[in-house]
Design brief:
Elements (H helix, E strand, L loop, with lengths): L3 E6 L4 H18 L5 E2 L13 E4 L4 E7 L23 H11 L62 H18 L6 E2 L5 H12 L1 H18 L5 H23 L3 H4 L2 H16 L3 H18 L9 H18 L31 H9 L5 H22 L4 E2 L1 H16 L7 H18 L10 H11 L9 H14 L6 H14 L5 H8 L6 H15 L9 H10 L20
Parallel strand pairs: 1-3, 2-3, 5-6
Antiparallel strand pairs: 1-4
Helix pairs in contact: 3-5, 4-5, 5-6, 5-8, 6-8, 8-9, 8-10, 9-10, 10-13, 10-14, 11-12, 12-13, 12-14, 13-14, 14-15, 14-16, 16-17, 16-19, 17-20
């Protein structure tokens, strides 16, 4: 039988696509053809000569063609997909009824004499006979059998892989971008980028990287699962140890180029990230120092401009470890601004109705904060406006905007120093908390923060607000801290404080609070859901709460007083005399 290829153009979200592939498994058996899948930018290279190709934005031209004669005329095959939205078109309903009634209401069946049957033109049999260019698929079964194997069943990995883990690799690959980059829906990760495709090719060529992907995916599923799985812990330990062993063998070898290659960097990045996730500071510090040496041997960070995503991952790892443990970063160690990346220019992404740079700074300008601190605030504020606009209008921004915002802002903030408990220090720390949540964190993963939450908590509890400030700013500080870095153990002091400031802000609904919070740093697609959940916890105030009288009394004593000259916080935890 000649080789065949199924070509398909499809417009479905990834879950719908995977369901569609299961349906097509039936046709794989029927026509005795095999395929690999190209889903978005995830490629599964193989030596097979037949492919199922998913591209573009609509379902069209589903047809079976001879691979050796692909340009010949072909007959379109009807294939109907129901997505549960809206009703099926009239012509499709008619086609469905006609198909359902095939073989029914025909009266008495006439016996067919031997030799009378003539195969219809385009009929596809199993004996390997050639068929005409116009082909059709005849249904041979009354039901669609379950899918056998996975899209990776024919892939030869660089090392042995347990069959059960192949499914997890595929599952993680589908969700990796959304997990690693919370703003993925607004960022244009080029599907033709070789770096995006390299991850799979490396699993077939580099055993160390293969085991890195295995323990990384398993670690993620462990951290996002509510159930304890001793088997998963054993799997992670085994593949982590194997990846580390292979890395040591590589570094001990004489191939200098391999020691500092991109695959080696990816392996060390994963090892550092894993150590950070399980709160193993010493190991994480060892790996990040190793990354610094590799980058130096490669000629510095500027040599990675050809891979913006690799640059992003290097800096994310460095910043994440520094903020978790209060250590120095290994990149951009000079406090002088000339060693740092310049601030991004958002002009090309701003609409004619977007606020100017001065307007984005206006919410803090009257508080006389540090000029450099005001610059970072203005950059983050404009970044929020650009992202919110892109999400609203379903546009995608270049991935460089992540790197060009994250690096210059966060490294400058880390190099600033202010007095503990000062208003400047609170604004610096809340910007770091905001940036960590937006740029550094994996979605659904709780990081072992100790340094940043502790510093921000202590700063808030000893803070003396400028008299010109409003309760709206403090309310945003508390809510953003709760969203970004504070955990359930902080609710005892944080929730009552938020409750008091909700009253001071005269807020009685989430929509009104959201409108006030958006005057500061706020990204709708990240913060709306989390912010509303915090509001639901803090509101309504319980009249019979044993602490409510205390907090209300304290709040009343800290309202604005024209005859007061000293600074004080608009909050229940005023420590001023």
């Amino acid at each position: 039988m000649p080789a065949y290829a199924i070509r398909l153009k499809i417009f479905l979200e990834p879950p719908g696509r995977r369901q569609f592939l299961s349906t097509l498994a039936f046709y794989q058996k029927t026509v005795n053809c095999r395929w690999v899948v190209a889903l978005e930018d995830e490629l599964f290279p193989t030596h097979l000569t037949t492919y199922l190709v998913l591209r573009n934005d609509r379902i069209a031209n589903f047809r079976l063609v001879q691979h050796s004669d692909i340009n010949d005329g072909v007959a379109e095959m009807p294939f109907i997909i129901s997505d549960g939205i809206g009703s099926t078109e009239a012509n499709k309903r008619k086609l469905i009824r006609r198909h359902v009634m095939l073989g029914k209401n025909r009266g008495k069946t006439r016996k067919v004499k031997r030799g009378d049957h003539q195969p219809a033109q385009g009929d596809l049999g199993y004996n390997g006979d050639d068929v005409s260019p116009g082909l059709s698929i005849n249904m041979r079964y009354s039901h669609i059998p379950p899918k056998v194997g996975s899209e990776l069943s024919f892939t030869q990995f660089a090392d042995s892989v347990e069959p059960a883990l192949i499914k997890d690799i595929l599952k993680f690959s589908f969700m990796a971008k959304r997990v690693i980059y919370p703003l993925e829906r607004c960022i244009n990760f080029d599907k033709k980028d070789n770096f995006d495709r390299m991850w799979f090719e490396l699993m077939t060529q580099d055993a160390a990287y293969l085991h890195t992907v295995l323990f990384t995916s398993q670690t993620y599923f462990m951290h996002t699962s509510s159930q304890n799985n001793p088997g998963a812990v054993k799997t992670v330990t085994m593949h982590h140890s194997r990846a580390l062993q292979l890395l040591r063998e590589r570094l001990a070898a004489k191939h200098e180029e391999v020691k500092i290659s991109d695959p080696t960097i990816l392996v060390v990045l994963a090892l550092a990230g894993h150590a950070h996730m399980i709160n193993d500071y010493e190991t994480a510090k060892t790996h990040i120092d190793g990354l610094r040496r590799i980058v130096q041997l490669r000629g510095g960070l500027s040599t990675f401009s050809y891979h913006p995503k690799l640059s992003i991952e290097l800096l994310k790892c460095d910043l994440g470890i520094a903020l978790s443990y209060g250590t120095k970063t290994v990149f951009f160690t000079e406090p002088s601004s000339e060693f740092l990346m310049p601030y991004p220019d958002f002009k090309q992404f701003m609409t004619q109705h977007s606020p100017t740079q001065q307007e984005t700074y206006s919410s803090l300008k009257h508080l006389n904060i540090d000029e450099k601190l005001g610059n970072t605030w203005s950059v983050l504020r404009r970044f929020c406006l650009v992202i919110n606009s892109a999400a609203e209008h379903k546009r995608r921004l270049p991935k460089e905007i992540l790197l060009n915002t994250m690096a210059p802002v966060m490294y400058r903030l880390l190099n600033m120093t202010f007095e503990s408990g000062s208003f400047n220090e609170s604004i610096r720390l809340v910007q770091l908390a905001f940036s960590s949540h937006v740029f550094l964190h994996w979605q659904g993963v709780t990081y072992p923060h100790t340094y940043l939450p502790e510093r921000f908590r202590n700063c808030l509890l000893t803070l003396k607000f400028p008299i010109e400030s409003s309760p709206h700013l403090l309310c945003w500080l508390l809510v953003m801290g709760a969203i970004s870095i504070f955990g359930p153990t902080d609710n005892a002091w944080l929730v009552p404080w938020i409750q008091v400031n909700l009253r001071l802000c005269e807020v009685e609904s989430w929509d009104k609070l959201r409108h006030q919070l958006k005057q500061f740093l706020w990204i709708d697609i990240l913060h709306d859901r989390l912010g509303e959940s915090i509001f639901d916890i803090a509101w309504p105030l319980q009249k019979d709460d044993e602490n409510s009288g205390f907090y209300e009394e304290q709040a009343a004593s800290t309202r604005y007083k024209e005859n007061r000259d000293d600074s004080y916080p608009i909050c229940a935890h005023d420590t001023a005399d």
